[in-house]
Amino acid sequence: MNAICDDLTAEHDDFDRIVGALDVDEWDLATPSPGWMVRDQISHLWFFDQRALLALTDAEGFAADTAVLMKSGGTDTSIRPGREMTAAALLDAWRAGRSALVAAARGVDPAARIPWYGPAMGARSFITARLMETWAHGQDVVDAVGASREPSARLRHVAHIGVGARRYSYRINQLELPDSDVYVGLDSPAGELWEWGTPGADSVTGSAIDFCLAVTQRRALADTSLTIRGASAVEWMSIAQAFAGGPGKGRDVGAFRGR
Predict the structure, then answer these.
(1) Is 113:140 a contact under the CB 8 Å cutoff?
(2) Chain-centre distance of CA 159, in angstroms?
């Protein structure tokens, strides 16, 4: 657990470098997520870091909290606390919440199954998903404020979640998963080849950053340079979703081309 917790902490710190330097007014800038401001992205991460901590430490309490959450508005509930706080208070709360989550996660049995809003996950995958969420919502903030961040080897975690969520992407769209496999071969930021599956008729290849932007629905496929071959690969990437919840709406073509 320490290795993935170290990577999650590094992702937190990299994002904090951007958020911590924002002016007060920038916290209210619109982000690519319709209706969400910068502060809403941070509030969302803080809110679900708290739920992740509850899932790790009190499964029954998490189940009860989930029932209340579903009745009170679901994901949109996560942005309300941040709108009632100053930017400084929200930043402090997010920092404290994520630190508490990582501290608890380091002591969890890697073989433990952790409940969540989709299928239960292994402990390491659970923390990997928090890294993916931090990176994805971080992208919304980066786009909103015109910041930049260097792609890192941590993208492999995001890509791995995206590949592993193929079956889930079909299920939430009420589609039948094809029998054929899809090979994924990605060029890492360091120039290495990251691979999943065996090369075949159906494949997704290109840069790791483009794949991660696509499966987290932060870029329309047409705004990436991915090469997608085969009917099964084309269908999957049209609905690919690395995050829990209902089918995402994705991003409009041409909306955010910069990185």
Answers:
(1) no
(2) 10
- How are strands ordered across the β-sheet holding 183-187? 193-196, 183-187, 203-207, 227-229
**Cα angle for residues 69, 70, 75 (degrees, 5° grid):** 70
Task: Tell me the C-alpha to C-alpha distance, in Å, between residue 179 and each of 111, 176, 202, 232.
Answer: 29, 9, 11, 9
Counting Cα atoms < 13 Å in the Cβ hemisphere of 185 gives 11
pLDDT at 256: 63
Confidence at residue 246, expressed as pLDDT on a 0 to 100 scale:
83
- For 27-70, write each residue's pLDDT tens digit: 999 999 989 999 999 999 999 999 999 999 999 999 999 999 98
Distance CA 88, CA 164 (A): 37
CA distance 221 to 226: 8
pLDDT digits (tens, 9 = 90+) for 68-78: 998 887 778 99
- CB atoms under 10 Å from CB of 251, counted, come to 20
Percent of the chain with pLDDT over 70: 98
What length does the chain have? 259
Under 8 Å CB-to-CB from 47, ≥6 apart: which residues? 77, 78, 79, 81, 82
Residue type, 138: G
Burial class (CB in 10 A: 0-12, 13-18, 19+), 222: exposed
Q: How many Å apart are CA 24 and CA 62, to the nearest integer?
A: 33
